[in-house]
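Consider this today:
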Amino acid sequence: MFCQYFELNYKLSKIIISPEEIEQFRDKKWRREEILKIETAQQVEAMVEDLGFCLALTDSRTNLPSVYIAVCGRRDAYSPKNVQKDYEMSLAWTLKDEVMRRGKVYYGKLCKGRSTFVAPGLIPYFNAIWGVPKNRENSVLSGSANKILEVLRKEWEMGTADLRVETGIATRARLTKALDKLQRAMKVVPLEVLYQPRFTYIWTLAEARFPKELSKKVSREVAVKELARAFLQMCGTTTRGEFARALGLTRKEAGKANHALVKEGFAARVSTGVYKIMDNG
């Protein structure tokens, strides 16, 4: 992954960061070690609080922490071809459902449409970047998405099939697309998943689960900086473009946020686009 050593002259001392040191830091933070792997919903919630955010069922190819990777407890965690018969993927899936149901951390398809867990403390910053204010819903969201919001604001929660009937949305594909858009806009979240008598999600308003966090107002600039802080704490050292790619931000915006962290003394600039948390070593 990393093809060079990064050097930093800081207060007359030379810091040399090897690729393996970066990976070892992430092994501990991302629970990529056998002794740290997770098995319970409470452990997932503790990990999300520690990291700030993580993905749900992605494997090592995404190069971000996830519940699945933490269940495996190793770097080389790759999704099996037969997901249903794999113990680790089945456990990760079960934990994902239980944590969603418990509602102590945020869960939904957020930036890049990936299923993501977010600690309550970071919800205002995600919302500042990707959320859609109520006064812009009609102009930003589709007609189908607005129909779903109208129904949920009356009924508070509803299953997928019932939502389709109540909204009059013609096809399942259109309903799914609207729900995905509402999740990315932090308007709707899955409350629970049911497998019997048939598979369905129960949906509710995001503000119903996290009213305090979603009502907090912060500027986009502050939000990006705080997410950069969380990302650096999660990774220890970030490489060129890594933060921007992870969250789908522009490199200019991500770079400005990292520069602000350097100015604070929270981070150090190792080389162009490479940043290291200052209390890590």
The radius of gyration is 20 Å.
